[in-house]
Amino acid sequence: MNDFLFRKEHSRRMPGDEINGKVAKENTLFSFQWIIILIFLFTIAFSSQLKAQTVTLDLKNASIIRATEEIRKQTKYDFTYNDLILKKAKPVTLKLVKEPLNSALKKLFSSQDIDYEIKDRIIIITEKKAGMAKGANNALDGPVNGSVTNESGKPMEGVTVRVKGTKFSTQTDKSGHFIIPAQYASSLLEINHLGYYHLEIPAQRARVVSLKMSASELKDIVVNTGYEQIDSRQLTSAVSSVKVDDILTPGVNTIDKLLEGRIPGLVFMQNSGQVGAAPKLRIRGTSTILGNREPLWVLDGIVLQDPVNVNPQSINDLDFVNLLGNAIAGLNPEDIDQIDVLKDASATALYGAKAGNGVIVITTKKGKPGKPTISYSANTTFNRRPRYSDRNMYMMNSEERMDVSQEMVERRMQYNNITQFSGYEDALQQYYKGTINYDEFKRQKDYYASVNTDWLGLITHDSYSQNHTLTLSGGSNRIKFYSSLGYLDEQGTIRGEYNKRYSSVVNVTADYDQFLAQVSFAGNYSSRNYSPADLGIMNYAYNTSRTLPAYNPDGSYFYYPVTPTVGQLFNYNILKDREYSADHTDLMASNLKALLRLKITPKFNLEGTFAYAISNNDRQLYYTKDSYYISKLRADYSLRNDKAPVGGEWTKNETRNNNYTGRLQANYATTFGAENRHSLTISGGTEIKSNEYNGFDITRRGYFPEMGGYFDIVPTTYSGYYNQWMSTKAALGSFNRQLTNELAWYGTTGYSYREKYIFNFHIRGEQSNLFGIRSNNKLLPIYAFSGRWNMKDDVARNTSWVSDLALKASWGWQGNMLPGQTPYMIIRQNASTDPYYNSTSANISNYPNPDLRWERTSSSNIALDFALFGNKVTGSLGYFYKRTQDAFLNKIVSEINGVQTYVINSGTIENKGVEVALSVTAINNVGMNKTKRGFVWRFDPQLGQVLNKIINQAINNRNNVLIDNIDYSNYLSGNIQLAGKPINTFYSYKFKSLSPVDGSPIFYGLENENAAEYQKRYLNMDRQDVYLEIMSESGRREPFIQGGVSNYFGYRNFGLSFNLTYSLGNKIRLMKIASGYASTSAYPQQNLRKEFVDRWRRPGDEAYTNIPGLQVNPNTINAWWQNSPASSLQLGGSAYDMYDNSDVRLVSGDYLKLQSASFRYNFSESLMRKLKLSSAYVALTGTNLFTLSNKMLKGQDPTQSGSTPNINLSVRPTYSASLNVSF
What we know:
The chain is α+β, with helices and mostly antiparallel strands. It has a domain of 91 residues. It is built from 25 helices and 54 strands. It has a 22-stranded antiparallel beta barrel. β18 and β19 form a beta hairpin. α11 runs antiparallel to α12.
């Protein structure tokens, strides 16, 4: 057991300190850091080989072509030239020994009519000006041979070359070469390539053409799907692509948060501002009810796995705060080049059954040809804590809370289970008992009325975070590399909470004529520290009375009495109690990928991919013997009931994941027909995957962290400990294992006619050990059809303001199988003996479900892509429709089966919506001559609308309820499926008024004066029908319209950008004021929201306010629906709980947020030359700067839901200073 012990040095912990002394983890982290450093040093050593090249030649009457081939072999430099130039060259005789490359070329061409130029690692050969006319005249009788390069001199493949005024067109090959027939030798050529300026040039001057990048052209040229790289002009699927450099925001440290407001059709929901909290993402709605609704993450073509296999029910819960991290939590956004969001069946088909919720493909940065470049980026971020002065705080101050206390005294307020008062109430009790005189009472009263303890300042703080990234990249045309080291120290605004991340990426690519090889490594280590959830740290900060001090006048802690159990007192101080607990998680993950592509023929190649990933998530949580948590377990300290008689408690949750992917794929591409008008691509392959989770969970008591992680023995006389605790699963510990093996085949075919009419077909079949018996006997194929019509030349040939126009459409099937289902019954024997029957027992772990079918989704998509006014306005307008059949639902079965619920295929879900994406370059005074730029203004509005509903027949046609194991809480939380209603539709009690007698809330359908009538009628109704009568539909919890508008303004070296995001269509509850973490019968230590300043106080106030009065005596308010026999209907809790869940506490969740704003200065060319830098900039950035929302929220952040049982920290504003340099 020593491997699982907490090793900690005996020392005093400060508030929020992490769990220390994990020797094994420290060694592992040390090793991990050394691995990263060694890899980084390797790339530096590799880059040192890219120095000046030397050449050794021994040529006798040899051709220039042979000489260039020999130089290319020795130096790895490429040549680009017109064949006619070298064919006319004279033979050479030359002997050189270790001659510098530049000098060797001068000697080689000294007696020739040849000029040359070296750009990066490409040697461009041209004719001398004096000889060009002659060469041109000689060529008039034959075809025109030309080549196209970019501004760096690199050959460009796939450039379209048209003969103006004719139908003839061709494309450049891999070397950038093209041939124009002799009959067009005197014609004018049109040379076009997406992302570059259009060029018209006489054919005889097109021997070597250099295209310049256009600032106003479409940004995204190549779309990465993970299996394919597709030119955006050939794209037939629904894919949104963004360059990470365009959306990178200092202070935003994970990839998922960067996508807020950037992708049409992607709904972003962030329910907590805690450091490391993951947002919830939905792509084109919800296609499953019981399955995981999050998208699939893919890194460089390989599917990523979450480090912890969290139950889909928790992940789908909109109130669940995910602090465990997701599949991309360890990736550094600085290492990412591009993000492609695959939305429809055509785009996601090749990923199979797990891609029903969409796929997000991440492409890491790769090296580029050129000298090695070292880049360093750093940013420091200030995170602003919440303050009582903020407009999003609406809590009472000391004086307002004292007013409540005085009213409670005047109305003879009664408390349940309180034996000792604190604060003002304690001073009043002492005065009544005569232990203090009036003067002392008055002094204490004045003190408590003005103390105004800043609990928010004591529990949260303004924090500073830092992020550093160092990269090294470069290479040649043959071998390119990219490597990086990253460090993030993200301090939370809750004291003691942090997220530290170490990351590294290494990508090496070797690209030769006959093969391409890639090796990629991505590794990260993160360390997170949080306050334990049971501590309720933010609940305390918001809801503790400000009349209570945190410290005594002498600086010592101020304690007040609380009662963890009846008859027991505990002196409590949150600051001290925080020192007695910690929740710490260490996560290490690494991904290794190797790819080899062999060129068998010019048209056919084979590629193999192997990837292996491993992660280890180790969470340790403890409470010491002095913590309030442990005091509650001790109950009355009797031998019979004490469940924690010695020491504290320690919990360990460890999850290890390892997975591998093997893929073999064949690719064939050809063109045929007259003028190569027809293009055909065929790819197919097979894939094998294995994914394994191994977990271990245990909770031990008798723990002493202050004694080095020592566990003491609990005497056997404590029968409660051994009988009630040690026989539980948590105390005994448990191992769990989940293994998923998958074998799949896939294929894709693409056909294009003159690059105008494009058709694609994708198909995938897979078999997995997750599927039932019947599913194992057949491979359900997932397939999709898609097409594209580049219609510019057909419908807008003579429309000058239309630069490009394309219509695309797709349709396909997707499938899904719910994890955890099996055709076999699994019975798990309990390890301990049943204390009542003195025998072993067993539970049914998995119920056999051999007939469960696939959850199938059909998806249709149509979109219009356009570019207008010389590509100054580009965008896409699309519509989609998805229909899921045989959706998984839970159904109650008889307990005689050993389980209470059973999964069936019974649901049908419909999703539909509209997506709009625009990119507008309103002003662009940037010329091609690289002079100082003028004013630039670009803005990119995005909009996505998603409407969904359940449309199948209900189990009970009277109330349209699709599941039969529900109670009122399902309606209140939105965890109810109703035919014809959107998913996450929730309900609220119908508030009527306040009672004129005591100010308690009254609801329609539940009035006391009609109790007898209601009880009789409701008992004869179906329970679900009763809920629909006493509640009203409130709306949906998820927004159905989200988007953003990003703006960029530039002038000279200055740039200003900001991103506005908006969300529409959802409803939220106001924070609780009468139940849960709040109360209308507040104990002396509880604070109240300012709404209670306007509370009901006396008869007649009900005409002016809807805020309930104080609950004078909790025992006197006895709702009729809580008494038998009406209690069997389970209509709700107390009237005050129902008030917080009524329609009067309901508001719109719509908001407009300034998500980010950044001011940037790019260093001038002259300054960079002085500093010997290739590029540099500094920037100031702010995030979450302000939010416009419903005024009834009274400052409550619209991302904070009143439905959650706990108060979550709101998303906090941040302010960052950044520096980025390259040399």
